[in-house]
Amino acid sequence: KMASSILKVAVAGVSRCSGVSLLRSHSTTSPLPRSLWKLGKLNHVAIAVPDMERATALYRDVLGATVSEKVPLPEHGVYTVFVELGNTKLELLHPLGEKSPISGFLEKNKSGGMHHICIEVDDINAAVADLKAKNIRTLSAEPRIGAHGKPVMFLHPKDCDGVLVELEEA
Question: Which residue ranges does the record assign to the VOC domain (predicted)?
Answer without folding.
Answer: 41-170
